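User: Just a sanity check before I run the rest of the batch. Below are the structure tokens for the first item. I only need the designed sequence back.
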């Protein structure tokens, strides 16, 4: 089974809204999640029992407030290295959809980001001839029912062109505290947001080799966009 774990970053108050995902083979997901657990539970590190929540980690907030910057940065480096090694080994593919000016969308603009993210993932699975059952799992959100309905409708629209349905069920949602893989999706979403919203490419450019052709999309009205998605 192919799995997509997804999360978001940004809001209607921002210039950009990001939906990001990490796709993986079912059996590989367990090993990658265990590796994150091992990082967070190292005896010499004060992260035991903590969620890998990238924003608070980088800004030193919440449970990370009292942790010295060098230790937090070491964890960041370890997580980045883990993602890149998994991608290099063909175990992980990253997926991102960036929407400009969410306020320009009708109510539920966030939902369109999720719909496009999952639709692009399924099209990539078809293109790569991975004719396996697919399941998408995201962080809990107030928009769960709208996302499920929108994704299922899009899947029905796409089905005639791809031959058959790969998606087992509408997306499922879990508390990110209970899923290391959703936490990795949050890591990707955070750095994609930083790249587009803050022009901070210090980390996102390092993640680019983990994307596949068509797994990075930027929805913008600008005709001269020179971002990573257009190169």
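Assistant: Here's the designed sequence for the first item:
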């Amino acid at each position: 089974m192919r799995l997509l774990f997804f999360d978001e970053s940004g809001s209607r108050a921002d210039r950009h809204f990001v939906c990001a995902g990490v796709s993986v083979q079912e059996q590989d997901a367990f090993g990658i999640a265990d590796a994150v657990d091992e990082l967070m539970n190292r005896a010499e590190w004060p992260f035991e029992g903590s969620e890998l929540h990238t924003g608070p980690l980088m800004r030193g907030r919440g449970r990370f407030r009292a942790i010295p910057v060098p230790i937090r940065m070491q964890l960041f480096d370890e997580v980045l290295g883990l993602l890149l090694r998994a991608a290099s080994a063909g175990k992980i593919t990253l997926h991102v959809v960036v929407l400009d000016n969410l306020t320009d969308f009708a109510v539920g603009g966030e939902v369109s980001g999720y719909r496009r993210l999952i639709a692009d993932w399924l099209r990539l699975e078809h293109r790569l001839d991975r004719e396996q059952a697919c399941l998408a799992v995201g962080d809990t959100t107030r928009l769960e029912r709208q996302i499920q309905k929108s994704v299922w409708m899009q899947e029905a629209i796409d089905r005639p062109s791809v031959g058959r349905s790969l998606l087992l069920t509408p997306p499922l949602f879990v508390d990110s505290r209970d899923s290391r893989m959703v936490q990795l999706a949050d890591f990707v979403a955070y750095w994609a947001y930083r790249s587009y919203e803050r022009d901070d490419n210090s980390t996102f450019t390092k993640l680019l080799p983990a994307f596949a052709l068509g797994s990075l999309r930027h929805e913008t009205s600008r005709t001269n966009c020179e971002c990573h998605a257009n190169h």
